[in-house]
Design a protein that fits this description.
The protein is mostly helical and 289 residues long. The protein has a domain at 55-134 and 175-258 and 265-287: Methane Monooxygenase Hydroxylase, Chain G, domain 1. Helices cover 58% and strands 0% of the residues. The chain contains 14 helices and no strands. The chain has helices at residues 11-21, 34-39, 41-45, 55-86, 90-109, 119-123, 138-146, 162-173, 177-187, 194-197, 209-221, 227-257, 269-272, 280-284. The longest helix has 32 residues, at 55-86. The protein is globular and about 65 Å long. The protein starts with 10 loop residues before the first helix and ends in a 5-residue tail after the last helix.
Amino acid sequence: MPAKPRQDLTEQGRRAQAAATGGLPLTQFDGTTPYEEYVHAGTLHGLQGMRTSQPGEMAFLVITQVMELYFGLICHELEVCQRYLRADRLEDAVVTLRRTAGHLEALNASWAGLRWMSPSDFHAFRDVLGQASGFQSFAYRKLEFLLGIKQRTMVRPHRSIPRAYRALLRALKAPSVYDDALAALSRRGYTGLDDMLGRDLAEEYVPSEAVETTWVTVYRDEPDHSPVRALAEAMIEIAQLFHDWRYRHLTAVRRTMGERPGSGGSAGAAWLERARPVFPELWSARTLV
């Protein structure tokens, strides 16, 4: 059956519609509702394939899926930010990062939905997860790559999923948001960044004294209202909120399973504690400003 043609509605059309219904909502539609066609709510509500009758499993599934959607949204926003950075539209990049910060705050708030879960609640259904682990999340891994946390081995779990594997390889080899920010600074006359910008972008990022010096100069010499200072502050906000997500993840793991190993082969909480900071020189520069 051919897809129904999309029916956009203008402001004039909405006013005419409200006048015709006397301000009451429409209740008659041919087929499904326009809301369902746009949001696909039926699909979303059909994705919780519970494997036990334990009530906590539903909460775990839904909140995990909500987080996955936020990972995808944040990746989308960071890619928008990169396009602005590459076009030297720093003000637009800052607006995008501030919007992304709001998404990260909402992502972090998602952990509240699992705060009630005790070890016995979690272990009532944990076994049916098998080897499934958040470590295997494609969208989360792409998010880390976009933020500059790169390791080649992190692509391996997705080799049997061609679309995800190709996308992660592209993100691994491409500039991160941090790389694009440094390139924008270089084009604005900041020197000493050539080595960092010319390195193999797929390799693990190693903090640089030259990059640290650049950020110190930004904070010492740029006026508060300058686009470069605004960019630095927007980026540190993203870094802090991402750190908050990681900390809440670690706390949730400790609260529900203590120091037990993870489902996917990791050491659990001990593995999460090894996480590296995002935009490291933006943090270390603060000691020197």
